[in-house]
Amino acid sequence: MGYANFLLMKEEISLVAVIVILLIYDIFGTPKSLKYFQPIACILMGIHTLVHLYPAAEVSAFGGMYHSTPMGSLMKTILNIGTLLVFMQASNWLANERTLIRRGEFYMITLATLLGMYFMISAGNFLMFFIGLETASIPMATLAAFDKYKQKSAEAGAKYILSAVFASGLSLYGISLIYGTTGTLYFEDIPAGITGSPIQLMAFVFFFVGLGFKLSLVPFHQWTPDVYEGAPTSVTAYLSVISKGSAAFVLMAILYKVFTPLVNEWQAILYWVIIASITLANLFALRQQNLKRFFAYSSISQAGYIMLGVISGTAMGMTGLVYYVLVYMLSNLAAFGVIAIVEHRSGKITIDDYNGLYTTNPRLSFVMMIALFSLAGIPPFAGFFSKFFIFAAAAQQGFYVLVFIALLNTILSLYYYLRVIKAMFINKSEEPIAKFSSDNYTRISLVACSAGILLLGILSTVYENIGTFSFGL
Amino acid sequence: MNFLSLFVLIPILTMCGLFFSKNLQQIRVAVATGASLLLALAVGLVFAYLGERGAGNTAEMLFTADTVWYAPLNIHYSVGVDGISVAMLLLSAVIVFTGTFASWKMDFLQKEYFLWFNLLAIGVFGFFISVDLFTMFMFYEVALIPMYLLIGIWGSGKKEYAAMKLTLMLMGGSALLLVGILGIYFHSSGTGAFTMNLQEIAQAHAMPISLQYWFFPLVFVGFGVLGALFPFHTWSPDGHASAPTAVSMLHAGVLMKLGGYGCFRVAIYLMPEAAKELSWIFIILTGISVVYGAYSAIVQTDLKYINAYSSVSHCGLVLFAILMLNQTAMTGAVMQMLSHGLMTALFFALIGMIYGRTHTRDIREMGGLMKIMPYLGVCYVIAGLASLGLPGLSGFVAEMTVFVGAFQETDTFHRVFTIIACTSIVITAVYILRVVGKLLYGKVVNEHHLALSDANWYERFSTTVLILAIAGIGLAPLWLSDMIRASLDTVIAALK
């Protein structure tokens, strides 16, 4: 084995370097110098993002175990940006007494899950994929339980780890069946061995469960509301965008590359999963009061929309998906940024608490509003464009009925998003959340998200650039 | 940069100006400047358009400009106008202008109010200048959302219910529409080089008829929801009744016209075969709209509801005329859009002014207002007469053209429905005269009303502009109807 192979994995190495630097700093830094932990973590992450901003060329290492495509590299950049934003939003929460001493852990564990996602994205072999999946899942449970003195947080961690392990187990079982029937675990070789036999279909379904769980698609979504509610808000934000985005991309890449011969079967499965995810999640979201639960259901239905890009099986679908993930990430992080700062300053988290927020905190309400409109797919915000492209990709393949059902669901989703907007702008409150000022990190992240939401749709270059890296079935 | 884009740019700049304005004075300067510039631009556009046509330019769309926006999907930001869009742009500019002055005395959150109002204007203007389906749809949706906040925050009565109902129903309409648009897009050419450009799609005419049967109803109903097509009109009475004055004006005056405009510019123009085959279904529905709206208006006691149902009836007539699929009736339809837009805006402005004084809109609690506020009373009578089609005012010209056109269709089905639709004229007279008699004449019901004052300068200003426009169309309709008729040639040619 040539050690030079390691050098090919530039993104991973750079991320490991960030983790190691932070680790050393955390261990050897004096209490006085640790004051700067937060800015240094953000700066390192920023540098890492900038260095790899432009997608790297196609790389294959370790005999095909590791296979990075430009599209995967682009996806990593998107995840980097999201993680950076989450880091910025987390500063408030991490600065309190209970979590301050463990602040370093938060960054390192988060980056470790990110590293897992990197490997998942660049996997060229099912074993590599599985290691990535596990690296991304297990630390995530500790993140969910990060506020360990809060019962709900601990409970969220326990729920997450149990369901994650179960889902990974099923996935691993599916992978073993694939190995048994095709005799290989390399993505490149598998399609030749797929005959569509019942055992391979079963293998596919088991495999699908693992990623379906990470994406929280119905019927693998039951953990989502509880974990989202219990986990610290910044972790919820991370779970809902980064974890979900990477899983969506990996699922698409594997369906396109590996399960090509089973295209009719997986399209049929996805068809019903999409309908169920969008519709059920929207129905459940209607009655939520707690904003984190609310966004849990919202994110399940958004995952359903994301899958519309996968089902098309075209390059256009892939572009649409990556673009959708980017826009969804910015919108959701804007919303979670507001939720986090409001929760931190006032301890309030239900929709009713937001009554009259506009009178006291107009800017935050405004950011929240454009985030919600973007999630609902209203122009001129980027969400409209991302929804349009993903619907167009599905419609091109003749899934008009599916698109129609998804569109009817946008009405439902608009209804519940408008509930929050109504609370902030229209409802009167005796004692609205008091006026407060945000810290600079939150401000910068919210400004960045808002700018993205406003500009990504109007500037077509982002979409076009993503399109240059896409490939279809 | 094409000067048509200014229609979108001016409201954007107004919004920027509003954003930085610090007091009411500056807000008013910003919005008044913006609205005046738009009106000037629209009037200038009419002259420029007529000049070009006079000089013998026979292109379908004038002042076109085209920029590639999303290259992979062949989506363009593409603008251009024909006679119909010129007419609609003029209407929108007049109503935005008068609406701005009608909300001069807005009492709270003025800045936000005008911000949303201008966003609404962006949507409306953008829609009428677009010749690209995607841009058109985008602007259409841009126009929908400010409505929620405008009604929900500044409205009256059951505003939250009305705002939610309106938004969700219109969103439903746009859901149907989006499926239709995707269908059109993916069948826009036989070669796989898809386009969103309206003219190119119409020229290629590649959609098989069997598919047109699916997508025509989707698009027609999608736009029809906004044009108050029965049974999807129920958002309109609640929405109009709860909205603040200027928003009712803009909504009934312009936004409902987006529906009618879209119906023939997209549904009929791009899918003419299906339009011919399926028009009977929608003729029945619009026939119901026309008569049912008028009857409902008779029994209402809230001034805004009366007017809202009257709008359902009149907008039903627009769609009805479009579905006759002949040039005269369609010309009438566009005339009716203009005429209804102006007079309904006048109505809503007056109702807002009366409500601002009496604090009630219930006609049972008012009476004899002509003595107390003669200016507003006279304006109300003029609006009423325009609505019931008095010659010399715009309503007569429009309805006359519509019914003459409708009578050209000689088969029994069209005849029967034309006659049914004609009866609405009588019913209109009933509800208009009932309100005029009760509200303006008769005894003063409430002693306190005797102390009320007549219109202020800005109220007089906005109503005068509208009345001049109504009378202008009524007295000199020919240039307008010629301009519209000439632009319909391509649609009619597609139908043959």
How would you portray this structure in words?
The complex is a heterodimer of chains A (473) and B (496). Chain A has 473 residues and is mainly alpha-helical. Chain A has 21 helices and 2 strands. Chain A has helices at residues 4-8, 10-28, 37-51, 70-94, 97-100, 103-121, 126-144, 151-182, 190-193, 198-215, 223-230, 233-257, 263-285, 291-312, 315-346, 357-360, 362-376, 382-396, 400-425, 440-458, 461-468, and strands at residues 59-61, 66-68. In chain A, a hairpin with a 4-residue loop joins strand 1 (59-61) and strand 2. In chain A, helix 10 packs antiparallel against helix 12 (233-257) and helix 15 runs antiparallel to helix 17 (362-376). The two termini of chain A are 33 Å apart. The mean pLDDT of chain A is 89. By secondary structure, chain B is mainly α. Chain B has helices at 6-20, 24-54, 83-102, 110-129, 133-154, 159-186, 198-204, 209-226, 235-242, 245-270, 272-299, 303-323, 327-358, 369-372, 374-387, 394-407, 412-440, 457-475, 478-487, 489-495; strands at residues 62-70, 75-81. Chain B has a two-stranded antiparallel sheet. In chain B, strand 1 and strand 2 form a beta hairpin. In chain B, helix 3 (83-102) packs parallel to helix 13. The model of chain B has no long low-confidence stretch (mean pLDDT 86). Classes of the chains: A mainly alpha (473), B mainly alpha (496). Chain A binds chain B through residues 316, 319, 373, 378-380, 384, 388-389, 391-392, 395-396, 400, 403-404, 407-408, 410-411, 414-415, 418, 421-422, 425-426, 460, 463-464, 467, and chain B through 69-73, 75, 134, 138-139, 141-142, 144-145, 148-149, 152-153, 160, 163-164, 167-168, 171-172, 175-176, 178-179, 182-183, 185-186.
